[in-house]
Amino acid sequence: MAFYIAVHNLKKSVDEVNKAFEELSPKFAKAMAAGETPAKCHKTWNSLPHGRTDYVFCLWEADKPEDIETSLGEFLDYLNVDNVKVDEIDWAEFAKTL
After folding, report:
1. Can you tell me the mean pLDDT for 1-7?
2. 92 contacts: CB under 8 Å, gap ≥ 6
3. What is the pTM of this model?
């Protein structure tokens, strides 16, 4: 599996996206926790409640980018996704090797 940062911008208004987050998130979280999705979202950084409405960022683990889109399911009605494959650097661990 590889790590991806998913960069999302909105397809609908902030209010519609926030409402969808509230409605879809419980089912989404339960499905990932049960291993029912082909990819796993580790973290989401959501700036929408803080007035920054251009992007939402997520850290995913997946075999391929298409697995992320499959896992997002209904969220794709509200968000575009641009998956960027990344390497993770743990700076605290790196510092221990110096």
Report:
1. 96
2. none
3. 0.86
